[in-house]
Amino acid sequence: MVAEAETVSVDGWDFSWLDGRASEERPSWGYARLLGERMAEATAALDIQTGGGEILAGLPKLPPVTVATESWPPNLRLAAARLRERGGAVVADDEEPRLPFRTGAFDLVSSRHPVRTWWTEIARVLRPGGTYFSQQVGQRSVFELAEFFLGPLDGSARDPEQARREAEAAGLTVVDLRAERLRMEFHDVGAVIYFLRKVIWIVPGFSVDRYRKELRDLHDRIQTDGPFVAHSARFLIEARA
Predict the structure, then answer these.
(1) Fewest Cβ atoms nearer than 10 Å: which of 106, 170, 200, 241?
(2) At what angle do helices 212-225 and 189-198 cross, to 10 degrees?
(3) What's the CA gap between 219 and 179, in Å, rounded?
(4) Residue 63's pLDDT is what?
(5) Phi, then psi, of 235 in degrees rounded to 5
(6) DSSP for 90-159, written as a single string
(7) What's the distance, Cα to Cα, between the start and end of the chain in Å?
(8) Cis omega (within 30 of 0) on the bond before 116?
(9) pLDDT tier, 14 (very low <50, low <70, confident <90, very high otherwise)
(10) What angle do CA 217, 22, 207 make, to 5 degrees?
(11) Boundaries of each Methyltransferase type domain copy (predicted)?
């Protein structure tokens, strides 16, 4: 179980390998559906930190101009292949300011689970009246799992209200802000290993060799008590230029 989870590919942002081994509740708002509605009305859209392009490629309709950015080479290849078939383009970007696009280039900018939101740059590349639409990771997300390996952590970052303040400071008007905590269950230690290899910021520097004792303890706990339960935090934010 450990060997399989340690060697299976974690490229892209597809979690289907965890089917039957782990589960996570989804936010009630339905990000992909809402994004699809906005993409269908847009003329030029930018998706920041697109991952493997899974979300965009799965939407019913994309704007005539659709561009995505990504920094991780394996995801770049996946995203380019997926979006090329839909008429979109992927730009390699280091995810630091400045965004490699002209001012006012887009009427829609989106991002699902960005590592960091560069509000001033988003405001710059949006046209007047344009929209930023994003689902983000909230406070203390999956901290039960992170703290199992790392001990107590500071959970003050990723406050939705701080995101509102930063958006407004960049000149945007926040028109929607919602937050939820969602139950996660890990049914075996292999699922935990795969998840931590893929979502690398939960336990930075994670490897099986480094955390073998903790993994053994976690395996024993799951065998005795049942699934390991954690909670993800998500918030939806929509802002207008």
Answers:
(1) 200
(2) 130
(3) 32
(4) 98
(5) -135, 150
(6) EEE--SSSS-SS-TT-EEEEEEES-SS--HHHHHHHEEEEEEEEEEEE-TTTTHHHHHHHH-S----SS-
(7) 49
(8) no
(9) confident
(10) 50
(11) 46-133
Q: How far apart are CA 108 and CA 41, in angstroms?
A: 9
Strand order in the sheet with 44-47: 22-24, 173-186, 228-240, 126-137, 106-112, 44-47, 65-70, 89-92
Chain length of the chain: 241
User: Beta strand pairing status for 126-137 and 228-240?
Assistant: antiparallel
Q: Which residues contact 123 (CB under 8 A, 6 or more apart)?
A: 170, 171, 172, 241
Q: Is 204 exposed, middle or buried (CB count within 10 Å of its CB: 0-12, 13-18, 19+)?
A: exposed
Read off the DSSP letter of residue 16: G
CA distance 24 to 26: 6
Identify the sign of the CA torsion 142, 203, 135, 75.
negative
Query: What is the distance of C-alpha 74 from the center of its chain?
Result: 16
Q: Indicate if the pLDDT at residue 13 is higher than 80.
A: no
* pLDDT one-digit tens code per residue, 183-216: 999 999 999 999 999 999 999 999 999 999 999 9
DSSP 188: S
